[in-house]
Design a protein that fits this description.
Blueprint lengths: L1 H13 L3 H17 L3 H14 L4 H17 L3 H16 L7 H24 L6 H23 L4 H23 L9 H34 L5 H13 L1 H4 L17 E2 L38 E2 L4
Antiparallel strand pairs: 1-2
């Protein structure tokens, strides 16, 4: 196989026919990759991209192969760099954009968005509370924005994944509030009120978690049965067992659609200004100098008519 790859590589170097050179380079790269000669595969794929940035679909396919090599090597930096380039190339493709380029770009963007989600989850709410809260909220907004952009690709599995991660982002924020580090200088009564305020603030995020996971149930009705809709169903069974744990999905439950547009909310969380602390109800906090965040504004979530 490696010898055949070398022959295609030689043919690409010697031929004056652009179409033949392009086909030979791709064949050589694929054969090098199959023979575990990844350095030679990378070299050939790079040469192809340098000479043939178009057609865009073939270029994106080739860059995706490069990204898979870096992924197998656990080189996250170069892996994510290639994924970002796939997203950029697809976005700039104009009339050359195809269903395939959009699919590869969507799945590449999902990997990048998953890293934002992991970075968000890693932030714990410690004292001083206002500092860690601000970072947590900023990372939450970045994660929700990234997941919203994924939905615009209109790729079923990516939409389901984005929906799942949006719901889990709200869930993690709610849980982080409840598990946040408590101030050490509060009297018992003040600590009790502080914790009650945290619970009150966390509750809308729990509701948002359920509502967004239920959007994946709409996708399930529409025929999108994959790991993401199943994960949402499992989470709903945990949070609302009376409604979701007792029913199994059967074939009659599923219908089919080819494409759809999904719109999800962007987080809007207000942070009380220092010195003007408020409880989630908006009333001045008279019992403690340690504010908890105000509840976020509600956002609309809807599906548009399938196209």
């Amino acid at each position: 196989m490696s010898r055949a790859a070398g022959e295609y590589d030689r043919l690409a170097s010697e031929s004056e026919d652009p179409a033949l050179r392009g086909d030979a380079l791709l064949a050589a790269g694929d054969l090098y990759q199959q023979s575990n000669t990844s350095e030679k595969a990378l070299d050939v794929y790079r040469r192809y991209l340098d000479e043939f940035p178009r057609p865009v679909e073939a270029a994106i396919e080739t860059r995706f192969k490069i990204s898979e090599i870096y992924k197998a090597r656990h080189d996250d930096s170069l892996y994510q760099k290639e994924l970002a380039e796939i997203v950029r190339t697809d976005a700039a493709a104009g009339s050359e954009r195809t269903r395939r380029t959009r699919t590869l770009a969507a799945r590449s963007a999902l990997v990048l968005a998953e890293q934002l989600y992991r970075d968000f989850v890693a932030v714990k709410l410690r004292q001083p509370f206002e500092t860690s809260l601000k970072e947590k909220q900023q990372r939450m907004d970045a994660t929700i924005d990234a997941m919203n952009r994924l939905v615009e690709y209109e790729i079923a599995d990516v939409t389901a994944a984005a929906t799942y991660y949006m719901a889990e982002t709200y869930f993690d924020f709610s849980r982080s509030l409840k598990e946040s580090e408590r101030p050490t200088d509060l009297q018992a009564a003040d600590l009790e009120k502080y914790e009650a305020d945290l619970d009150e603030t966390a509750f809308p995020f729990e509701e948002k978690t359920i509502k967004v996971h239920e959007k994946n149930m709409e996708l399930l009705h529409a025929g999108v049965l994959d790991e993401w809709t199943e994960k949402s169903l499992s989470r709903l069974a945990e949070m609302m067992p009376g409604r979701y744990a007792k029913n199994e999905v059967n074939s009659d439950f599923l219908g089919g659609i080819d494409s759809y547009v999904y719109r999800a909310p962007v987080s809007q969380v207000s942070v009380p200004a220092s010195g003007d602390a408020q409880t989630p109800t908006g009333k001045p906090n008279q019992t403690t100098e340690h504010p908890v965040p105000m509840a976020m504004n509600d956002g609309g979530v809807k599906h548009a008519t399938p196209q």
